[in-house]
Design brief:
It contains 6 helices and 4 strands. It has about 190 residues and is an alpha/beta fold. It has a 4-stranded mixed sheet with strand order 2-3-1-4.
């Protein structure tokens, strides 16, 4: 069997619960987030039995992803390799730390105009995953990252808009999609 990739969004943080944009601000998991990481680990354990055990665990360098990976690894008997640059969340510029839940569209659009461009997020995520796949061919890997990064990446690879990814959600993606060129302006 070829390479298999399960993308996992980190568990909840207090900023997630408050509706704040986190971006690359390093906010730790809260209790609910640790529970979500445990739930993700159980889901991955089930998926591992269905498709063979997991071989590799990697994460974004941000603490919430590292902690989620640690919880998953403890359950599955895996130790995460060094965090991978390129898997960190989108940088939201002036929007980081701002409560966006309930914000009007014009204000939100103005904040997002200061954020890292979506195409750059996709490009660095694809490059990071290609590097992992090249270094570890034929493995079954778990990649713990962030909601916007996963949503944009999966949408771009599949060529369709991908819905919001919930905290602790597991999204499997076909590793063969990484070999194809990612179209510019692909849906995210």
């Amino acid at each position: 069997m070829g390479t298999r990739i399960a993308l996992v969004r980190h568990g909840e943080t207090d900023w997630n619960a408050e509706g704040r944009l986190q971006g690359q601000t390093d906010i730790p998991l809260n209790g609910a987030g640790r529970d979500q990481a445990e739930t993700a680990a159980r889901e991955l354990e089930r998926l591992g039995h269905d498709g063979g055990a997991w071989d590799l665990l990697v994460s974004s360098p941000l603490g919430r992803a590292v902690e989620t990976a640690s919880i998953i690894g403890d359950r599955l008997g895996l130790h995460a390799i060094a965090p991978v640059e390129g898997l960190q969340e989108r940088h939201y510029g002036a929007g980081e730390g701002r409560v966006v839940a309930g914000m009007d569209r014009a204000t939100l659009d103005a904040l997002l105009a200061t954020a890292e461009p979506e195409a750059e997020v996709v490009d660095r995520a694809v490059q990071a995953l290609r590097g992992i796949v090249c270094a570890h061919p034929g493995t079954k890997m778990i990649v713990v990252a962030h909601g916007t990064l996963i949503r944009l990446l999966v949408g771009s690879l599949r060529g369709v808009v991908h819905p919001r990814v919930l905290n602790g959600e597991v999204v499997e993606v076909d590793a063969d999609l990484l070999a194809a060129p990612v179209p510019a302006g692909a849906p995210g």
